[in-house]
Amino acid sequence: MNAAISLNGLSKVYAGAAEPALRGVSLAIAPGEIYGFLGPNGAGKSTCIRTLMGFIRPTAGKASILGLDIVKDSVAIKRRVGYLAGEVALYQDMTGRQLMDYLSALQPLKSANCLRRLVEDFQAEMNRPVRELSKGNRQKLGIIQAFAHQPEVLILDEPTGGLDPLMQEVFYDLVATASGDGASVFFSSHNLSEVQRVCRRIGFIKNGRLVAEHPVNRQEAGAKTARQRFIVSFDGPAPYFQIKNLPGVKVSRQNSGDLTIEVVGELAPLLKLLGQCRVKRLTSREQDIESEFLNLYQEES
Ligand SMILES: Nc1ncnc2c1ncn2[C@@H]1O[C@H](COP(=O)(O)OP(=O)(O)OP(=O)(O)O)[C@@H](O)[C@H]1O
Ligand SMILES: [Mg+2]
């Protein structure tokens, strides 16, 4: 299967900069996939996104979107991709309505209904000049213009920045629907729980390098064949051998005395056994990713 977005050793050194902003980033995003791009301030997320969109040129490496080369075919790419910049720069004197009319001349709408629904869902302010809008209301217009023409690929730099929690939910629904319709979504974020909730895969960038990639096993969590991992602390001795004897369970002891337990299939026997023990703390794999990501941030400072 051809990737919707593919990066191969993508690098960027800004003119006069001592250090590269992007150092050989390679990744591939499948059609319909939602990919979350996380990393500390200055890690290179916006640089990567602006390079993909052809606003700046890579120093080395290659990338393609829908099979189109990001350098040679950047005009065609801009027509087919929905893009949201990190700092939404819209025409300040236009109203939302005028802006959408103007942009739809550049990127024709497949359906006027889609735009109408977006405006409704986000309760967007369409009749005031952009310069009079609050940050969140400007962000809504930025999101609406990215999705309005129902593009096959969406590249969004911190899309939920400035949105209130209700509007964040609207955005998550929108991304899920777009992905369900086959669109690929690549977006940067500082919010691990949001990317864990909406993305199928998470990439972590630091100092211009892609240092980790994780699948998010949301759908698999309920499946019979999925492997789930727990870390369990006990008040008192850990029932290592009893757990070891359960079907489909692998267990190992950590230095702290906690047990790492991996289960394939039925959780009931493990939960029943744990119910008879004095469990102090139970951590699931997702939270495990959380601490790993936090560590990646902390090493930075
Ligand atoms: N136009 C530019 N000229 C020179 N250096 C730049 C330019 N834009 C970004 N940089 C540098 O490139 C590096 C990566 O910046 P970038 O904006 O891509 O980070 P980011 O991951 O998007 O950070 P944030 O989370 O703060 O948005 C930083 O060291 C930054 O100072
Ligand atoms: Mg940025």
From TrEMBL:
Q: Which domain of life is it from?
A: Bacteria
Domain (ABC transporter) ranges:
5-232
One Pfam entry for this protein is: ABC_tran
GO molecular function term, any single one: ATP hydrolysis activity
Record keywords: ATP-binding, Nucleotide-binding, Transport
Q: Which PROSITE patterns match?
A: ABC_TRANSPORTER_1, ABC_TRANSPORTER_2
Which InterPro entries does the entry link to? AAA+_ATPase, ABC_transporter-like_ATP-bd, ABC_transporter-like_CS, ABC_transporter_ATP-binding, P-loop_NTPase
The protein's matches in PANTHER family, at most eight in alphabetical order, are given as: ABC TRANSPORTER ATP-BINDING PROTEIN, ABC TRANSPORTER ATP-BINDING PROTEIN NATA
The family note in this entry says: Belongs to the ABC transporter superfamily.
This chain's protein is named ABC transporter ATP-binding protein
Source species: Candidatus Chaera renei
